[in-house]
Amino acid sequence: DVGSVKMAVIKALEKPIMKSGAFFVGSHPMAGGEKMGMAAARADLFEKAICIITPTKKTKPEAAGRVRQLWEATGMKVISMSPSEHDVLVSRSSHLPHVVAAALVNMVLADGHKTQQAQLCATGFRDTTRIASGSPEMWRDISLANRRALSEALRMFTRELSVFRKALLAGDAAALEKFFADAKMRRDNWKLGAESHSQE
Questions:
Q1: Nearest Cα to 50, choosing from 81, 80, 77?
Q2: pLDDT of residue 198
Q3: pLDDT for res 200
Q4: Which residues lie closer than 8 Å to 72 by C-beta, 6 or more apart?
Q5: How far apart are CA 167 and CA 177, in angstroms?
Q6: CATH code at 40?
Q7: C-beta separation of 72 from 99 below 8 A
């Protein structure tokens, strides 16, 4: 299992697999892009990328250790956490961005807009919406499988947008600048940390 949602899969598979004397250890390699299939394969896909393994209280340490060794052999950095924690965290950092990218494309490139609208979509739009070109079927299934956590992430994101809109309508320049400054600081710090980890 290398899927993007863990709780549903573990609930379905852990018990029947344990009856056979084996253990099921969920994994989620955080690598890849919006393209699918053999044509999108890369030899260095997993190198220095993060892989999450999600053992449960029923998982033997030896089983989790073997799965960890498998991913480390591909060059990945392995993080272990509970299935429920995994689903909450990726709902914010992976699933929500896909929804936001799709919503942005659907709004900006709506059929009712003039032709010039698409012509004015340049680098910022392209970079922000790259992942909207992912598989609709796959993201339908991911969204449904993690609906509770994703719904909460959407609520939190909508609140952020509401704060910005309120400041915008009020003409609150200080609040708007702080909104962008906080985002810049957090992303710059995240990028710096990600780069330092990739060099370890």
A1: 77
A2: 60
A3: 57
A4: 78
A5: 10
A6: 3.40.50.720
A7: no
Dihedral sign computed on CA atoms, order 55, 57, 59, 62: positive
On whether the CB atoms of residues 74 and 49 are closer than 8 A, the answer is no
Question: Residue 47: phi, psi to the nearest 5?
Answer: -60, 120
Checking 174-181 for CB contacts under 8 A at 24+ apart, the result is: none
Q: What is the pLDDT of residues 46-62, one digit of tens each?
A: 998 999 999 999 999 99
Tell which of 53, 83, 113 closes a domain. 83
> Counting every residue, how long is the chain?
200
The token pair at 176 is 């708007």
What angle (nearest 5°) sits at the alpha carbon of residue 106, between those of residues 92 and 94? 15
Assess if residue 61 is contained within a domain.
yes
The rounded distance, in Å, linking the Cα atoms of 82 and 52 is 10
For the beta sheet containing 77-80, the strands, ordered from the edge strand earlier in sequence to the opposite edge, are 26-30, 50-54, 77-80
User: 147: which 2 tokens?
Assistant: 């609906």
CA angle 28, 29, 33 (to 5 degrees): 120
What span, in angstroms and rounded, lies between the C-alpha atoms of 184 and 192?
A: 12
Distance between first and last Cα of the chain: 27
Q: For residue 128, is it within any domain?
A: yes
